[in-house]
Amino acid sequence: MGAGAEEPLEALVGRAQGEDRDAFEAVYRRTVDRVYALCLRMSGDADRATELVQDVYVRAWQRLRSFRGESLFTTWLHRVAVNAVLQDRRSRARRSSREVTAPELERFGRAARVAMPGTRVDLERAIAALPDKARRVLVLRDIEGYKYEEIAHMTGVSLGTVKAQIHRARGLVKEALT
Amino acid sequence: MINDHLSEATMNDLVDGLLPAAEVTSARAHMDDCAVCREAYARLSDTVRQLRALPRSGDAPEAAWPAIEARIGSAGGTPPPATEDGRAKVVPLRGSGPTPWRVTLSVPQLAAAALVVSILSATAVWLALPQGAASPASVAAEDPASPRRVLPVSAETADKVAEYNATITDLEEILERGRVLLSRETLVTLETSLETIDEAIQEVQAALERDPASELLLRVLMTHQRTKLQVLRQAATSLHFRG
Question: What does the alpha-carbon distance between residue A107 and residue B58 come to, in Å, rounded to a whole number?
Fold first, then answer.
């Protein structure tokens, strides 16, 4: 096993760039939980989120050598994931009005639930129930921390539209929690 | 009684710290006197605070890695080498030998190369498709869930189907890399068209699952697949001439 648990992530990435698949698997295991959370929240569909995770890491592997360490690897990977979700047409086509189920929400982990007992699952449900576009931009802004301008660039819509979508999404979440 | 309440946009800008200082002072002064806005702002800021406190991590399903490993392996994939200027990318052009042929190309060059590949691949696939009664056998490529990766044909054409799928993948890659070269209107139109085609493909695939021997459905599916190829090829052409 060439990918030790204690090896720094950037070192693993460097080995993966040298076509070391064990190292890439180790990179995957270190980073997948955050990528999955992003895919699940943005797609609102647990099955599709799992497929998107696959797409993200296949893309990451294929483009790994274009990563030059000018940013954190996690930042680079996160951007690959955001692009994969935004460009995903199938999740839009497939998705009905289904909500993320309670077992799926369990996958978000327990730490925050301890910090905010009773509120987090409701919040996740409210996010999952948002219209697609509103949910995506809300997740990018208020959970992932992107700037409005960055979201406008990523989604290819105007800054004003992005702001309006986020404001609307916040309003819907606020009402859902009332 | 206060009639002019703070707008939703103002409250959101205040929450985001984007309101100019003078307007912050004015908004806060308003809320000092207006219980409605004070309450609305408190609820909004509390909602945003909760959103920002959500964990960014979740427990991913264990099953994901084997599928990724299989796809990396099936792509023959080694990470493509980086380029000097950071703009040109590397595309694995699929050759017949065991080792993929890799060259470094700019976006317009990629588009041109993809056109050649797509024309050759599409021609080969359509020539290879059965002309008589369709075989009920379906060839599912790497990802059965993907509308672009399943094309029901006889087993003998499996290689051509794989080549078709690879071509679609390459063309989508070209489009993705060249997004910045297209106008927003073009991009929206293009993506909407592709979305519609994908939906149609999915519908026919679902019907084929119920009636796998239907030659009509098979032909309809082939038509949709061909349409998708044409749309992607046109996009690649556009990128070629814009580059």
Answer: 5
